[in-house]
């Protein structure tokens, strides 16, 4: 979201941040955003009643003056109306290719974006002109967040938080690392205390099982048979399936000795957070 805001700040654009409200409320909010940019008075008394009507207005009228359209948290809109990707696909096929629109769909639900937007079974498959999977910032970027910390302290911070900007912003170099950890991670009211749980609940259908697998890995049970024993899940192929999902979400990685000829089939692989 912050990257898109920085990208669009010096351009004519429409930036709509979705939420989990009803479809009617989402259409009302989107109509209000368009009204703020265009001054079209009818939108105040008669918001768009469907996504097809709203999208057609954007493609037929709005993009002539405002070509950059950003929809943040696109999955939220699809939750209230699962047909939205196919509606967008229909209008895109009619008008998108000949339009000067620069349409950006953004979402923090990685599995949804990969399957429902980019996936081969998605109505939007084959219509993208590019995609960015935002990876964490590198260690060298921490200087911008924590100029007062020494290099060693920044190593500690990076080992705790990784490179996610939203997490890095919760720590302050006006405080010690210990103070930051106590306030933001160990404090039950801290922003980061429940973040792992929220992330898994958003992405996964059986979070309790995934929690037990992650806990096993965190306690040093890094081989498949060790994870099976620690979690009590009697079916190794099932555990393998859960691990594959965690790898897709980039929560877990699998490492294999470099000497293995067929690493994907190797039994010497270990799983790390």
Short description:
This protein is mainly alpha-helical. 49% of the residues lie in helices and 7% in strands. The mean pLDDT is 91.
Topology as a string of helices (H) and strands (E): HEHHHEHHEHHHHHHHHHEE
The description of the largest β-sheet is: 3 strands, parallel
Structurally, how many domains make up the residues?
3
Low-confidence stretches: none
Q: What is the average of the pLDDT values?
A: 91
Share of residues in helices = 40-55%
Helical run tally: 15
Distance between the termini: 25 Å
Structure, described:
With 273 residues, this protein is mainly α. The protein has three domains: 2-117; 139-193, no CATH class; 197-272, Orthogonal Bundle (Arc Repressor Mutant, subunit A), CATH 1.10.10. It contains 15 helices and five strands. It has helices spanning 2-8, 23-38, 42-45, 51-60, 74-80, 84-95, 110-117, 142-145, 151-161, 165-168, 177-186, 195-203, 207-218, 224-231, 236-248, and strands at 13-17, 68-72, 102-105, 253-255, 270-272. Strands 1-2-3 form a three-stranded parallel sheet. The longest helix has 16 residues, at 23-38.
Per-chain topology:
Layout: H1 2-8, E1 13-17, H2 23-38, H3 42-45, H4 51-60, E2 68-72, H5 74-80, H6 84-95, E3 102-105, H7 110-117, H8 142-145, H9 151-161, H10 165-168, H11 177-186, H12 195-203, H13 207-218, H14 224-231, H15 236-248, E4 253-255, E5 270-272
Parallel strand pairs: 1-2, 2-3
Antiparallel strand pairs: 4-5
Helix pairs in contact: 4-6, 13-14
Q: How would you describe this structure in keywords?
A:
single chain; 273 residues; mainly alpha; Arc Repressor Mutant, subunit A; 3 domains; three-stranded parallel beta sheet; two-stranded antiparallel sheet; 15 helices; 5 strands; globular
